[in-house]
From TrEMBL:
Primary gene name: galT
Organism: Yeguia hominis
Protein name according to UniProt: Galactose-1-phosphate uridylyltransferase
Gene3D superfamilies in the cross-refs: HIT-like (3.30.428.10)
EC number(s) recorded for this UniProt protein: 2.7.7.12
Xref: InterPro entries: GalP_UDPtransf1, GalP_UDPtransf1_His-AS, GalP_Utransf_C, GalP_Utransf_N, HIT-like_sf
Amino acid sequence: MAELRWHPLTQDWVMIASHRQNRPQMPKDWCPFCPGSGKVPEHFDVYKYDNDFPALSQDPPTPDDVADDFFRTAPSYGKCEVILYSSKHTATLPDLSDEHVAKLVDLWCERFEAMRSDPKIKYCFIFENRGEAVGVTMPHPHGQIYGYPFVPKKLRLETASAAEYAAEHDGKCLFCEMMEHERADGRRIIFQNEHFTVFLPFFTEYPYGVYIISNRHCKYLTDFTKEERLSLAVTLKQTVTMLDSLFDYTFPYMMCMHNAPINCEEANGDFHFHIEFFPPMRSAAKMKYNASSETGAWAHCNPTCPETAAEELRAAYRRATGRTE
């Protein structure tokens, strides 16, 4: 079974993909993403791999006969890709050179453009799940890209908020205004360079839930110049290195890239590209669980003070980079 089902209470689509339950448990001594597996080239730096068990496909099956005049289904149209960061099985982003990570940024851009060329795809979501704490069973360094035939609820809310703010404030960007206030305060800024700013938002839901935002107003990853792409590679690598330095171990996280929607009316210029991190740890040994309030009511509770956590992150950044300022 692979289909979309409409959730009338939240007005969002849910992907039903029961065939993914049949994914095999990989042997400990074999990895499909490593050279020699027969699944990938013998030599590569970064590589796009079509997901073997996709929740969405460009040739979806007909939905099961379960809909009626109230419940709605739709074909699970879309695209699911795996993006391999390296041919080395145990590599992490901090292990890779700046130039190598720049190749990864270029591949993200290439695949974004490929998905945008399909008019049925309305949102291209680039993300990475890292670590067993977020359910990762494949340690080989990789991320994923989903091309949805709809704009997911959270992205619809962000897009609508940006459009509403622009309409009420003479066309000003909600994200640019947020950054003006963050920079003016300064306490939650972790580090910044010419092209990007890394900060812990005033409203962060997670103790170490840092954002990366472009200093220039761009709505898509593909809007960046070659110089900005390299800068993003360096910024991303430094951010992950900082997180690893926080408690001196490979830090688990969910990394989510937020671009504007595509191929739909919501694809307007009010949106601003940024990356959101969702690390599940609230201390070196304690997890920050999403319990009833967060899950059932979407009412988040952050058990730490963002300003204090930002101080910890700045210290981790200085350790990771050897900087003293």
